[in-house]
Specification:
The complex is a heterodimer of chains A (393) and B (161). Chain A has 13 helices and 12 strands. Chain A is of the alpha/beta class and 393 residues long. Chain B has 2 domains: 37 residues, no CATH class; 77 residues, Lrp/AsnC effector binding domain/regulation of amino acid metabolism (RAM) domain (Alpha-Beta Plaits), CATH 3.30.70.920. The chains are: A alpha/beta (393), B alpha+beta (161). Chains A and B meet through α2 and α11 of A and α2 of B.
């Protein structure tokens, strides 16, 4: 077959760069069979709690194999409404202000497709999750990266927002706690961001998927601040807190006309989220909180270990207040983030993700996920230390 | 709560060195805490959890016995329950509500040994009214550990966004 079939690929897709994570994944895949410790994952190492899996099995046994309403099972939307009310202090009507989606990823795509005209400007903080900028490009939007810095523990500041703002900016994309930095904002910082959004009339898309994994202090949703619920789409899901990544189940909450707009895209593209996943999600919300707390306690311990070890070995690492990622600065090794990650993988069989995969501001850093067992983290740290020592001699 | 006790109740299976790391305390201090918990009779001791079903000659016979006893004036069930508990064959013993009084977990090297314990020792104690012995056939979960051998090859991706 000739290669000219490429001519049918749409221009904005042909020019869209592949995810840096993908390149690195292929490199790691070549090491198959070797004793690689991976700190490169973006998901919990816990399997979904049994009671959730059992609820999904029971749903299948009862023959729950049909479509649900476009917005999702009403019972699940009611549970979401209660859960979000209790944990985030924002109340959404289950009937028309909540939509169940195929993970937060779909919710985000729906939001961009529903709210972004070609050429509209979308602000997002960087380093950030790999799909934010490409998702904006997919709807012919224009992304504006707002840098966050290690000196601020990668919190987004209103000053940085103001400096990056351009006339015509319409949407602000937030992800707090943040993948890959674990950065969060204090209440005061969030209030300033909210004030800026009201001043510039920005619509906020707030991806709060890591919010339950906040280790110190309480998580504050920007949607809960005065005057913000009416300009915020609250995005959340079950992947991280309930260890349900493969179920692909999430949701969006917001003003009814905006949820309705997202629903239009959803009904024509996805129809509904899988009913089995919805049944599992309902069980997770109604009986899963103790499990979340147990897992959080484990992550907390692992975080303390990995951050302490990084700093002890001379890789400066801020304490991520949320998520399960540490984002150390590796420049003291004399290597770029890519050289560090590749060298570490080849010499010591530890996989971390080069920070540049998460945008320009990830330069000089690597992402190390601590959603792996305490023992494995200890061994991985020993290997990294050995790698650094070998470089010095 | 004593921080070491908190770790123990979570059943995280940590060595004292690991506990020291988790709590950011010197190992000596962890050992002191453990000693104190032992003195207070809160921490009674360590025991391995084993699956001996595949070990020829090592597997034991286990049974649970429902025991009805006569309570005594002044002492209730305690004196008799403690007397029964002292036998080496008895692994655990509980006072129960419902159709019988004591539930006794017994272990022996053979069926005959367990049967002999019930007929000669347990049921002949004054105050024991009746026993009902149930032999365990197969174990599926022991002390929180599933016995089914789980697949060790993981299909989880090594790098993911």
């Amino acid at each position: 077959m000739s290669d000219d079939s490429k001519r049918w690929v749409a221009e904005h897709i042909a020019t869209l760069p592949r995810s840096g994570i993908r390149d690195f994944f292929e490199l790691v895949a070549k090491m198959k069979g070797q004793d690689v410790i991976s700190l490169g994952v973006g998901e919990p190492d816990f399997v979904t709690p049994w009671h959730v899996r059992e609820a999904a099995i029971f749903a299948l046994e009862r023959g729950k194999t049909y479509y649900t309403s476009n917005l999702g099972l009403l019972e699940l939307r009611r549970a979401i409404s209660t859960y979000v009310g209790e944990h985030f202090s924002v109340y959404y009507r289950p009937e028309d202000q909540v939509i169940v989606t195929v993970g937060v990823s779909e919710a985000l795509d729906l939001a961009f497709r529903a709210f972004c005209n070609p050429g509209d400007k979308v602000m997002f903080h960087q380093p950030c999750y790999v799909s934010y900028h490409p998702s904006i490009t997919l709807v012919h939007g224009q992304g504006i990266a707002v840098p966050t810095y290690a000196k601020d523990n990668f919190a987004l500041t209103a000053e940085a927002l103001r400096a990056a703002w351009e006339p015509g900016a319409k949407i602000l994309m937030l992800n707090l706690p943040c993948n890959p930095t674990g950065g969060t904002c204090s209440l005061e910082q969030i209030e300033k961001i909210a004030e800026f959004c009201r001043e510039k009339d920005l619509l906020v898309l707030s991806d709060e998927i890591y919010s339950e994994l906040t280790f110190e202090g309480a998580h504050t949703s920007i949607a809960s601040l005065p005057g913000m619920a009416e300009r915020t789409i609250f995005l959340h899901g079950f992947s991280k807190a309930f260890a349900m990544t493969g179920w692909r189940i999430g949701y969006a909450c917001g003003p009814a006309p905006l949820i309705d707009a997202m629903m239009k895209v959803h009904q024509y593209s996805m129809m509904c989220a899988s009913i089995i996943a919805q049944e599992g999600a309902l069980e997770a919300l109604t009986h899963g909180w103790d499990g979340v707390l147990r897992m959080r306690e484990q992550y907390h311990r692992r975080r303390d270990l990995i951050v302490r070890r990084f700093n002890q070995m001379g890789l400066s690492c801020h304490l991520p207040r949320g998520s399960f990622y540490a984002f150390p600065d590796v420049r003291s090794s004399g290597l770029t983030e890519k050289e560090f990650a590749v060298g570490l993988l080849e010499m010591e069989k530890v996989a971390v993700v080069p920070g540049l995969a998460f945008g320009e501001n990830g330069r000089g850093h690597v992402r190390a996920c601590f959603a792996t067992s305490y023992d494995q983290i200890g061994i991985a740290c020993d290997r990294i230390e050995r790698f650094l020592a070998a470089r010095r001699t | 709560m004593n921080p070491v006790l908190k770790l123990l109740t979570e059943g995280g299976n940590l060595s004292t060195a690991q506990m020291a790391q988790v709590l950011n305390l010197p190992v000596g201090e962890i050992e002191q805490h453990l000693e104190q918990l032992k003195k207070d009779r809160i921490f009674l001791g360590w025991r391995p959890v084993l699956d001996l079903s595949g070990e020829a000659g090592a597997a034991a016979v286990r049974a649970v016995i429902e025991v009805k006893i006569t309570p005594e004036r002044g002492g209730g069930f305690n004196r008799l329950a403690e007397r029964i508990s002292r036998f080496d064959e008895v692994e655990s013993a509980y006072l129960m509500s419902g159709g019988y009084d004591l539930l006794v977990f017994v272990r022996g090297s053979s069926l005959q040994k367990v049967a002999g314990f019930v007929s000669e020792k347990l049921s002949t104690i004054e105050g024991v009214l009746s026993t009902s012995t149930h032999f365990m056939l197969r174990c599926y979960k022991e002390q929180g550990f599933l016995l089914e051998r789980e697949e060790t090859t993981s299909t989880r991706l090594t790098v993911a966004p």
